[in-house]
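Supplementary material to the annual report.
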Amino acid sequence: MIRVCNVCNLHKYFGVIHVLKGINLEVMEREVVVLIGPSGSGKSTLLRCLNFLELAQEGEIELFGRSVDPRRDRLDKVRERVGMVFQQFNLFPHMTVLENVTMAPISLKKEKSKAEARASARQLLDRVGLANKAGSYPSQLSGGQQQRVAIARALAMNPEIMLFDEITSALDPELVGEVLQVMKDLAESGMTMIVVTHEMGFAREVANRVLMIDDGLIIEDATPEKLFSQPSHERTQRFLSQVL
Amino acid sequence: MSAIWQILQDQLVPFMDAMVMTLKLTSVSLSLAVVIGLVVALLKLSRHRPLNWIANVYIGLIRGTPLIVQLMFLYFGISRVVVLSSFWAGSLALAVHCGAYVAEIFRGAIQSIDKGQMEAARSLGVSHWKAMRLVILPQALRIAIPPLGNQFIIGLKDSSLVAYLGVMELFGAALSAQAENFQPFQTYMAVGLYYLVLVLIFTLIVNWLERRLDKANAGRALDTRMQRMQSA
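Predicted assembly:
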């Protein structure tokens, strides 16, 4: 199996606050890894370090077989291969749905022509069930639809790994299912995914591995069956009893 | 009152010519001010300290000194190095002045855009500058339009000071007219009317533009509600 991502002894500080305290994480191709843990434990920060929206002060991040040095490497090139979806959607409100999806591929000349970029974008919108919304503006869509557009937008760059940062947390409860379904389909299609979520049902059903993060450290790394039925760490037990 | 009417009639041609000059001065200087403002706003928002510093010094100097002093300083300063017509010297000076205020307007508008917008663009592999151009600035510009309109009205009126460089714009025309007719009170009142009408027209244009943008947004919101109602 090919290793997509390898994190070694990652430390991140925000000022004096030590958020990540030596994270080690290996993710293989086609793997779905779910990160759980209490708020403030560093899950989102870890995810944001992986595409260098945050720069860690210490440690090493290897992506696609190469160690990335944020000072020397062109991070834009790395980010093209790492898709990310955010809790707050962050769609571009002044662009239509189609323009949102084609913005990056067109401006980075990912496709041969604009027409091809639009055609692939329409395919992606179809895949997330929004083929008929191409001409709408984000403000005309429900939260669930917006989040599915955001997924299509990230997929438009043809990433090799996708990062999901609590993408259902800002949604009305009845809209969570449609977004989880898209993620599930994506996982089944073989996408490598790292998912921060509080949806334990999703973790149980889709994840290959579930990691428990607490206070900046991965304290448990197990299959969902093992982690949910017999967590080895007392902190995990306590956390699960609070959320389940 | 009839004296003012008389002056308006007598000075119709010179005042009309002068009005055209005022409009030229204003449009040239404000267009330049927008360019300067945008560049300085980006300098001020840059991560590089020296660039912030340049922007801060520029804005500080412009805000901290009177426009008439800046006009004279730049006019005589520039004419030591290159020969410029008083029109261009005046336009440049007005642009440099107004640019500082426009910079602050742009900076505020850019900073008001949620930082998730930039992050989303960057996460797709889009460079900082491309994201600025395609994602941040189009949104910031919409927010900037009302305060920009306000600043442009100030710029239009400030162009009167360029009369002191010898440019025959509205106020300059009034200066020379009252020297001939010995009716300063009525002459200045007449020229004031010209400015008032110009500003009113300009205000109407800005209001119309704002309403159009509001309507574009409101229309979208309304569409959404209708769609939701239909799908419900």
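The radius of gyration of chain B is 22 Å.
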